[in-house]
From TrEMBL:
Pfam families: AAA_28. This is NadR/Ttd14 AAA domain-containing protein. It comes from Chironomus riparius. SUPFAM superfamilies: CYTH-like phosphatases (SSF55154). GO terms for biological process: photoreceptor cell maintenance.
Amino acid sequence: MKPTDNLMDQHRVYKLVLTGGPCGGKTTGQTRLCTFFENLGWKVYRVPETASVLLSGGIKFNDLTPDELLHNANEKLEITSFKDGVPVHSVDLNAKCPRCLAAEVNKKRHDAYNFQVNLLKTMIQIENTYFELAKSCRRNCLIICDRGVMDASAYIDTDKWERMKNANGWNEIEMRDNRYNQIVHMVSAANGAEEFYSTEDHSCRSEGVDLARELDYKSAAAWIGHPYFDVIDNSTDFDAKVNRMIECVCQKLSIDTGDRLLRTSRKLKFLVSGPLSDIQFPSFQDFNVVHHYLQTSGQRVQTRLRKRGQNGHWSYIHTTRRPHVHGQSIEVKTQLTQRDYLNMLAQKDDAHFTIFKKRRCFLVNNQYFQLDIYQEPSHPRCRGLMLLETYTSLEGDYLKRSLPKFLNIVKEVTGEPSYSMYNLSLKEDWNNTKKFCYSLHDLIIDDGQKHPANMKMLVNGKA
């Protein structure tokens, strides 16, 4: 058995977060996704939304919110008298004085903060229970989490979120990247399908359209930086929206759905030229990314390791790419521990440079983008190279309008072998190597040599 083959033989446990703004289709989508995978023979666990469980048990979040109390306290401060700079305590037992209101505000703030901490701890424990059950299951297992731990950051101030992480020893690489395999954000109907937005069928939902849009953006922004983050917008009718959601999960799992789902979403890659200005970007997350290609048994199979992290915290992924009988390239991704990653580094292919990148992740127009900025040390062909990637079902003018206007996009390079990371990492000159990969399939064979049907060479970053 080859060193990497045992990864393919293990039963699969796939941890998916289904998140989104109010009235985005999570409930229906979760049910349809569950049925689809059960029909494939998978065991499916559904982790309930922790906030809904607690709120449906009698907790009223408004009771924990100090905003109205603070407003009343401020009004009292405007009309009360002061002594030595301190508001005078009221003797009227029928009216709360500013000092009493201020004390109650502080208590409410403390209660709200503690509720969020306990909500998150409860969520983690509930999820861990399902994760452990899935490990002992003999079948492939899909775990659908109705929201995940990072969603909590969308509902509290940044300073409180940082305080919460520090107090509990949490970091976002572990909470966001290592904890879940994929995040799918279902965009609220309040953003693009307003006529379908409703709060009638949800006992815990009372948001108006404007607030729903704001919460939708915040819940999406909370997951910026996850390596496998998909945004399902309202560009199609609802049935097609749910199919697109199921499709994007199947794509990440390399499950061939045949004609059961309409394939609309595809990965696109664009060449970008500098300079870049951080000020022009919306909210973003930067990561350090390191790729190593591994030795394989054949030229038509590619395997690589990826280390990705921030501030000394890392996630590790093993990827195998191989051709499919129907002409599709299939990728199988496996999350690794640091120990497994270090052990597998012994299989590094010396024909390839290690690839170093800065990866910038951000949202524009409900579209999730990753900008890879190649860094030294690297082959001269990679110097100054920047590639923008996204998954989308948009085409034509709709696609053009969705792209970031603040970036200088030179051209689309999807599928061009000159911009393949496998080829960019080759140590040998492309004109003098037999290792150049034109495609995992559809090669032209002539006199024992491999040639592309149409291929533009990239030399020193120029086509």
